[in-house]
Each structure stands twice: as C-alpha cells, then as structure tokens.
Write a structure and sequence with these properties.
With 429 residues, the protein is an alpha/beta fold. The chain is built from 14 helices and 17 strands. The strands form two sheets. The chain has a 15-stranded mixed sheet, with helices on both faces. Residues 20-31 have low confidence and may be disordered.
Length: 429
Amino acid sequence: MNLKKYTSRGSLLVIFLGLFFIGAIVLKATSSKKIGKLIEANYSVDDPAFRESMSYLLGPSFLQGNRVEALLNGKEIFPAMLKAIQEATNTITLEMYIWESGEVGGDFAEAFIERAKAGVKIHVIVDGMGTLKLKDEDVKAMKDAGVQFVKLGRDKWYKLKLSINHRTHRKLMVVDGKIGFIGGVCIGDKWLGDGEEKDHWRDTHFRVEGAAVKQMQGIFAENWLQTTSVVLQGPDYFPEIREREDSPAAVQCFKSGPKDGEENARLVHLLAIAAARKNIRLSHAYFVPDNLAVEHLLAARKRGVKIEIIVPFKNDSSVGKAASRSRWDKLAEAGVEFFEYKQSLYHCKVMIVDDVFVSAGSVNFDNRSFRLNDEANINVLDKKFATAQIKIFEKDKQKSSALSAAMLKNRPWYSKAADYGAGLLRSQL
C-alpha cells in the first residue's frame, strides 16, 4: 500500500474542505443583512410618512385611481379570470405556483389555446414542482397552439438543483396590461366551489384595474427575463392607463424573492405592525412568525393594539400546523386572539391594519414566503376597501372557533413536544 499517496490525497481533501468552509463564512459575513431589530414607527398607517416609507423602501410607489375587487373562492374567481382571458386582444401573462390537470386546469388550457390561435401573445411561468400533476399532453397542446409555457426550477421530484428551495409561489395574471389578478388561488380542482367542502380551499383573489396593474406586469416581466432571457416591452404589455375617477384607492404591487427584494415581504408586515395604533387582523393559512415578528406583535399589544388572527383548523401540512402552533403561546398570553377556521381548508393571506391598510396576495406569514420563495402582494390604502375586507374577515370568524391561552396551555404534553419539534424546522416551512 502506498501510504504516501493516500496521505497526500487526504491532505488535499482537508485543504479543500478548509477553503470551502472559509468561503462559506466569508460569504455569510459579506451577504446583505436582514432586519434584526425592532422597528419603532412614530406614525400610523394612515400617516403620509407610512405611505412614503413603504414606497421608497420597496421601490414601486402607491398609485392613485385603482379599482380593486375581492373575489371569494373558485365560484367567483375562476369565472372572472376566464372571462378576462376570453376577452384578451393583445397579451396575457400568467405566473402560477400550481397548475394541475382536471376541470379547472382544462378550462384554462382551452381558453389559452383559443386566444393563442386568435393571435394573442401568451406567456406562462409555472413552478416546476407545481406542475407535477399537470399532464404533458396538456402542456403540449398549449405550446402547439402558440402559448409560451415555461417551468421554473425542478419539474421532477428527483431532479437536483443548487437552489432547491427557490420556488415561485406567485399567483398573478395580467390581461392586455390593463386587468390584473392576484391572490392565493392556484389552478386546480381543490379551489372549485364556494369553499364549503372539507377538502376544498377557502381562498381570496383580487381583480385590479388601474395603473398598479403595470407594476404587476413588471414583476412578471422580470421573472420572464430571468427565466427566458427575453424582454417583454411596449404598449401591448405596458399600455397607457388613465387614473380611474370612480375609485380613489391607492395601490402598490410589490415583489419579493431571494434574487430581488429578499426582505420586502417581511418588511411590509413588520413595518405595518410597527405602525399599527388600533387593530391588526391577520388571515393566514401558514402563520409561523419568527422571533422578531413575535416581538413586533407583542410590542403592538403593549401599545393597546387589538390583534386577531384566523388560522386553519386543518391544512395540508400537519408539520406546518404544529410549527405554527409552537409560536402561539406567548402571543395568546399577551392577549392576541386566535380563531381556527373549521368549515374547509383555509388558504387566505390577508393583513388589515387600523381599518385602512390592506396587504394581500401570495405571501404567507412564514419564513418560506418572507425569504425563500418568489412572492407578490398588493398593498392598498383605502378605508372603503379595508371595510369590505373586514366584513369578509368577520364572516370567516363566524365559521371559526376561538382558541384561548388556557386551551393552548392545557394541551397534552406530547402535543406540546410535537409542536416544539416542528417549530425547530420553521426556517424551512
């Protein structure tokens, strides 16, 4: 045996590993900093300082004269989206987390095929893992008709990629650069109906008209560029849009993701909580706040802010539910009110602050949405719109059960242990 040869190889391996770990440490030390301290805002969300801060911190400004309509569940959402597609004359862009074959998937495919054959330019990005239940023949039929359809990241579970955690979780569609849809709904049969079936999703989507739609289009266009190297531009994608006089809502559409605006989603939620003076209402399918978010919510309670949070009684991830519950005890003890939605699966992602500010879209209140996924939300400053969202929130509360601090404290030890264990994984959930 040539010991000298093996010793030499071993030394090279040690040197290589040493350089690797040194590089990792340097990369971490020189990477951009995260929000690490409590934000103290000496203004409220209806103060011009909040609007200006949010505009310049995120990039896109709040734009006046937009009309935003809430659509509840597949019963309202899918007909509105399909109608917009059928009336498209120039372009359609769609970025989606999940597209599954079935009744809904087939309706969208047929609508896209018909419009593509009519000469409408259609661009589609779907997360690779979100297409696992989308049949190849459905994709082929769309591509053969002229639909430009691409997948982001892995499209097979066994395929490896360096950025395995990078997913597009966005659910946005823009038609002719003038009508936008954004929210929590994916293209799949579990979103059918009115959110009444136990295994179906209760969800909210938003139809937007006005200049803010061009901000949505810009978000899609950037991801299309990153995915295909093609620039989408010109009046077919970014037409001139006049301010709507019938709706004064100020709207801002922002993006977040590991490649751009990494802290945007987290910043919006933390800054809004810091600026809250009266109340905070959160409707979230996945509510797993990190330590700093918990600190912000506790600080809001100390200021006398009323906080109500609707979460699912049951969702599609038992581990995610346990991780979420591991973060509730301290909040509940401070007076945060929790409600578990029981009628069906709960998939909403809405924050309402002080009866005037609303943030809604694809962003969950968890680390995956705040730091790992590509996400998109609309922020709306408008009392009339906020009032409508509060009515929806109250209806959801009526279909929920209150969960008190005592109920959380008295749950079995093995449930607490399971929650604690799942909570250790919250950075990846």
